[in-house]
Specification:
The protein has 177 residues and is α/β, with parallel strands linked by helices. It has a single domain, classed as Rossmann fold. Helices cover 21% and strands 38% of the residues. A six-stranded mixed beta sheet has the order 5-4-3-6-7-8, sandwiched between helices. Helix 1 crosses helix 2. It starts with a strand and ends with a strand. The relative contact order is 0.21. The structure holds guanosine-5'-monophosphate (5GP). Guanosine-5'-monophosphate binds next to strand 4, strand 6, helix 3 and strand 9.
Length: 177
């Protein structure tokens, strides 16, 4: 098992590149099936989900649109709890079939606070695809429609996820030692 250092902390390999790719393809296959003949709009939440969104999108065979928005609620290793929209949502969601792409659902606060803003625009449907979910940490009610991996309540980096800005480029996901 590889140990890496990011800033002052040590992390060990938790999910290999192959495991992640395999699972992302499975999620895309499920979406291809569920949305066959439809054209959903994916809303990827930056920064963390950029790699997940890019890989998932490549495995799609259906017609699909994608846009990117930015919500900030995390500094360092502890959620600050505040949700700030810094890049707005330009697409009109009325009557659209929307799928949110999130890197990780921790307390669930980010999405729980953000969903009403989306629902206000009256999409035809609204589903959530999260690569990672920490069920033990989740405090806010949320229905996750597609989940890559249920993981323990430990801080992770890699595959788009950072620790104070670093680690996003890693192809694997690492867990705090
Ligand atoms: P929530 O609002 O669900 O508590 O937090 C969601 C956001 O917190 C995620 O989109 C992600 O940016 C950040 N986050 C939560 N857990 C982790 C983690 O283990 N590692 C990293 N790098 N970010 C996390």
């Amino acid at each position: 098992m590889a140990i890496i250092n990011v800033h002052d902390k040590s992390f060990e390999t938790y999910l290999s590149e192959e495991t992640i790719q395999q699972r992302v393809k499975e999620l895309a296959d499920a979406i291809n099936e569920d949305y066959s003949g439809h054209r959903p709009l994916f809303i990827a939440i930056l920064n963390g989900s950029f790699m997940f969104a890019a890989d998932l999108f490549k495995y799609l065979t259906i017609e699909a649109d994608i846009c990117f928005i930015k919500l900030a609620s995390y500094k360092g290793m502890k959620s600050s709890g505040k949700v700030v929209t810094s890049i707005g949502l330009e697409d009109d969601l009325f009557d659209k079939e929307v799928i949110i792409l999130e890197d990780i659902v921790d307390t669930g606060k980010t999405l729980h606070n953000f969903l009403p803003k989306l629902l206000h625009q009256q999409p035809r449907s609204l589903k959530i695809a999260a690569l990672l979910h920490k069920p033990e940490a989740t405090e806010y009610p949320l229905t996750l429609d597609y989940v890559g991996f249920q993981i323990p309540n430990k801080f992770v980096v890699g595959y788009g996820l950072d620790y104070d800005g670093l680690g996003r480029n890693l192809k694997e996901i690492y867990q705090l030692v």
